[in-house]
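User: Please predict the structure of the protein below. I'd like the answer in structure-token form so I can feed it into my own downstream comparison script.

Assistant: Understood. Taking the following sequence of 209 residues as input:
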Amino acid sequence: MATDKKSFLLYADTIHTVRKLTDEQAGRLFKHVLAYVNDENPTTDDILIEVAFEPIKQSLKRDLKKYEKIKLLRSKAGKASAASKSENKQVLTHVKNVKQNSTHSTVNDSVSVSVNDSIINKKKNIDTSFILPDISFKEIVDQWLLFRKELKKPFKTQKGVEQFYIQLKKLSNNSPLIAQQIINQSISNEWQGIFELKASKPEKQEMAR
């Protein structure tokens, strides 16, 4: 498993296989699973344990691939957000300095337009040129814009981003924490839209290593 992954999913329907084992075999199977997720490469001479473990092993591999993909997307979103912050800070500082050195409003207006055009041109590949009224949601929205770009379904208009922002605020009840969870939910399921948070499903049990 991934070195920084501290948990895994054991699906509830595994019970149909485990019920066919003795209590001793079930215990050995559980130890076998724990050894596997801790990268101990366990082996067994018991054919029943081997057969029972195989579907569990395949589901663990699928979940690991999904985890790695989500981790990569979040890393890209975080880097894009950091780059956006740094670039915006440099541009604002430049505009402030130009305004302080200028005594004519027409010159200020010209510089502001020029700088804004430069921002838009530089950020054609990333949707950070869109304007949001609430800075507390900006990093979260940036993650979603980058994810949509990865899906080759980028937002193309300011109006579209504004409508998405309104929907996110409504679904999260204006909470950045809940908004982040909503974004994570859609990214992990590779949805093109956002939805209310799902309640934990009883058929999945998360077990900590």
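That's the full token string. The two ends are 11 Å apart (CA to CA).
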